[in-house]
Each structure stands twice: as structure tokens, then as C-alpha cells.
Design goal:
The protein is α/β, with parallel strands linked by helices and about 400 residues long. The protein folds into four domains: about 1-50; about 65-170, Immunoglobulins (Immunoglobulin-like); about 185-195 and about 240-405, von Willebrand factor, type A domain (Rossmann fold); about 200-240, no CATH class. The protein contains eight helices and 18 strands. It has helices at about 1-30, 35-55, 220-230, 255-275, 295-305, 315-320, 340-355, 370-385; strands spanning about 65-70, 75, 80-85, 95-100, 115-120, 125-135, 140-150, 160-170, 185, 200-210, 230-240, 245-250, 275-280, 285-290, 330-335, 360-365, 385-390, 405. A six-stranded mixed beta sheet has the order 14-13-12-15-16-17, with helices on both faces. It has a five-stranded mixed beta sheet with strand order 2-8-7-4-5. It has a three-stranded antiparallel beta sheet with strand order 1-3-6, with no helix packed on it. A hairpin with a 6-residue loop joins strand 7 (about 140-150) and strand 8. The protein is elongated, with a radius of gyration of 35 Å. It starts with a helix and ends with a strand. Keywords: Membrane, Transmembrane, Transmembrane helix. InterPro entries: DUF58.
């Protein structure tokens, strides 16, 4: 309220100053006479009248339309924004400053000059502007509106108008191509093979064998019993489940963006192989997707990863304790974190007791090395049937290169 009153008083004072200048030059021409004095008055008159016109012009007749030319974006790419301004009355404007109001999260640096443009519209009723934002960061970015500014030649009057035009831009995480190997493997570094539960597919009969105590009645092949009077049991094709559940640690970390990139790459690799994957992350908001497969499911995972932030106030161990009921019986547990702790190893050991295959992907910087404490915890985890793999930034594609089928 006080600011509005101050702006109104400032505009009135500038208008009075303009009247004084016009009156002064006119009086000088009247009393002095001659070519020079009248030339001065007539030269100043258009600028003075234009200042009055700018003062009276409210900028209310401008309408704006924003078009985001590319909607399917991933981190590191660029986007082109098209701004269309239209107005009804072609009032001459010497300059017009347009600033797109967008959340600062869209900038990888503090530089914001790319959303502020100055044009010279003059009598034009339609104006087209275009600008690009490079190196987009992951996340959801909000466009709230546009701010228009103009003024007179003398700098006495400046007009500002805010136009509401809301849009949002969702930037998906980037991903690295990697070849995923399932958890029922033997690793070169001496870690024993991790067992996962075996599921019998009752629809695929592989042969017959003699009946054994404990076999289900539904497995008995009654036709052969009728012919031979010997109990025979159907032998089914055994199928191992390669379903996985990716768990992202959302505690604050300088490597969080690298962890998101790895999570996206891992989920995509699992789905590309034809297996099913679920996703769990917990922070200020909770993301949880069931174990599924398909292109649409990958899109859902990427959508969740586009929005996650490293804002969890709970440790990953506390999150795992709460989410233990969310895991499917046959799903392998893949934890992505940048901090390896003893409580995490012990918490995940409980999952191995239930025949869950468990792996920890420890994300490190490109030049970071595993510490002595992390070496000790890695050996402890190995003894408990948990596989730990360091994943260095820039080398995510090689994570499974040393994994071979047993």
C-alpha cells in the first residue's frame, strides 16, 4: 500500500516536472524569440508529448501466449521458448523490456539474462520472441507469467505490467546405457552367488517322475496312474524370478544428482532386458511404484525421478524399516546410496534372511576412492550375502561388466 502511494506521488511529481519543462521552453521562446529559442521548444515538444502518452498508456491491452517447443526433455538438454505478444491499439513504443517469470531452479547457473529481452515495437500490434535455455537441470520448473516494462525518452515515466501465463516444464533425469545382469549370478571378486526364491510355473510341464512324500496332490499325473497303477508326479520347468525393487537414498548428498542418473539408468536397463522393476524413495514426499514392466512403467519411474529431491530427514535404514512390507516376496533389493554405514548393512541382512537378493550400489565421485571403513563394511556385507559395488561418476556403464552368469 505504501509502495503504491509512493509510486503515485513519484508519477505526479514527474508529470509536474514535465509541465514545468514544457512551460519553461515555451516561455523562453516567447520572450527571447528568434530561430534558436523556437527550435529548442519545437525540438523538446515531441519528447514531452510522448512522455505524456507513455504516462497515460496502461499496457493493459497486451495478451501473451507462451509455447514450449520441446516437451520431452532430459537433464543436460536445451529448450526453446516462444513468446507471442499481441495488443489492440498500436500505440508507438520506443522500447519494451520483456522478462519471463520462471523458477530459478531451471538455471544451472545464476545467470538469467536469457529470459530478459528488449525490443523496439513502435506501432507493431503483434510481437514474436524466442529464447533458449541451455543445460537444463532435472526437475519440474514453473513459468508463472511475463513482466513488461516501457518508458519515455526522458526517463521520467516507466510503466510495468505483469501478465499471467502459467506453464510447467518437466525435465527427466539423464541416463547411461548399461547392460544389466540379474542377481542370481556369481561375481569375480569372490562373493558367493546370491540365491533367490524359485517359483514353479504350474502351466509348463517338463516331464514325469516318481511320487515323493510332500508332493502336492494337484501335481499327480492321474492318466499315467490309471494306466500303470504307479503314482507319478508332474515335473515342472523351474523359473527364477528376476524382479527387482530399486530403492533410492534421498538423504542430502552432493552426489544426489548422480544417484538419480544411476537409478534411471538401472531401471531402464532392467526393463530393457525384459524383467520387472519397482521403485521406492522416501523424503518430504513419498514415491512408490509396484513391480511391473513395459514402456509405460519406465515413463512412470522417470516421472517420479524427475521430481525427487535429496530432502529426506530420515536415514535410509529408517526408510527400509518402514518399507519392508512393500517388497514383493520374489523381488531383489537394489539400494542406491552414497553413504555406506554399518546400520544399513545390518538392516539389509534381514532381507537376505527372507531369501531376498540384496545389492548396494555405492555412488562415488569420478576421482573418489573407497575408504578403509567402507572396505571393512564391504567385507562384512559380503559375509552376510550382500553384494556391494562402487559406481563412479562417468563410469556407470561398466558397473555390470565384471558380472558373469554362474
Amino acid at each position: 500500500m505504501v509502495k503504491n502511494i509512493w509510486n503515485w506521488l513519484k508519477e505526479i511529481s514527474n508529470f509536474l516536472l514535465l509541465i514545468v519543462l514544457l512551460a519553461g521552453t515555451f516561455s523562453y521562446a516567447m520572450f527571447q524569440g528568434g530561430f534558436v529559442s523556437w527550435f529548442l521548444f519545437y525540438s523538446f515538444l515531441p519528447f514531452g508529448l510522448y512522455s505524456v502518452l507513455v504516462m497515460l498508456y496502461p499496457l493493459d491491452d497486451f495478451t501473451v501466449t507462451r509455447k514450449i517447443k520441446s516437451q520431452d526433455l532430459k537433464a543436460g538438454s536445451h529448450v526453446t521458448i516462444n513468446i507471442s505478444l499481441k495488443r489492440k491499439f498500436p500505440i508507438p513504443l520506443f522500447y519494451l523490456v520483456m522478462e519471463d517469470q520462471v523458477s530459478t531452479s531451471i538455471f544451472s547457473t545464476k545467470e538469467r539474462t536469457q529470459v530478459k529481452k528488449m525490443i523496439h515495437p513502435w506501432f507493431r500490434k503483434s510481437i514474436e520472441l524466442e529464447y533458449e535455455i541451455e543445460n537444463l537441470p532435472r526437475g519440474e520448473h514453473i513459468f508463472s507469467g511475463l513482466e513488461l516494462k516501457t518508458g519515455d525518452f526522458l526517463g521520467l515515466f516507466q510503466k510495468t505490467r505483469s501478465l499471467e501465463e502459467k506453464d510447467s516444464l518437466l525435465v527427466y533425469p539423464s541416463f547411461i546405457e548399461m547392460k544389466y545382469q540379474p542377481m542370481n549370478v556369481r561375481f569375480d571378486q569372490g562373493v558367493a552367488s546370491t540365491e533367490v526364491k524359485i517359483q514353479r510355473d504350474s502351466t509348463m510341464v517338463n516331464g514325469l517322475r516318481e511320487y515323493q512324500s510332500g508332493d502336492r496332490v494337484s501335481w499327480i499325473h492321474w492318466k499315467s496312474f490309471a494306466r500303470t497303477n504307479d503314482l507319478m508326479t508332474k515335473e515342472f520347468e523351474e523359473r527364477k524370478s528376476h524382479d527387482v525393487c530399486v530403492i533410492l537414498d534421498r538423504t542430502p548428498s552432493i552426489l544426489f544428482e548422480d544417484m538419480v542418473t544411476f537409478a534411471a539408468s538401472l531401471a531402464r536397463a532392467v526393463l530393457k532386458r525384459g524383467d520387472q522393476v519397482g521403485f521406492i524413495s522416501s523424503g518430504r514426499t513419498k514415491q512408490q511404484l509396484p513391480v511391473r514392466s513395459g514402456e509405460n512403467h519406465q515413463q512412470q519411474i522417470f516421472y517420479q525421478l524427475a521430481k525427487v529431491q535429496g530432502d529426506s530427514q530420515e536415514t535410509i535404514e529408517q526408510v527400509l524399516e518402514k518399507e519392508v512390507s512393500s517388497f514383493q516376496q520374489l523381488a531383489s533389493c537394489l539400494v542406491i546410496t552414497s553413504k555406506l554405514t554399518s546400520p544399513l548393512v545390518h538392516q539389509l541382512h534381514d532381507f537376505t534372511k527372507n531369501n531376498h537378493a540384496v545389492a548396494i550400489f555405492l555412488v562415488k565421485g569420478s576421482n573418489d576412492k573407497i575408504t578403509v571403513e567402507e572396505q571393512r563394511l564391504k567385507a562384512l556385507a559380503s559375509s552376510k550375502g550382500i553384494w556391494i559395488k562402487e559406481c563412479h561418476t562417468g563410469h556407470f556403464s561398466n558397473v555390470f561388466s565384471e558380472v558373469k552368469r554362474a
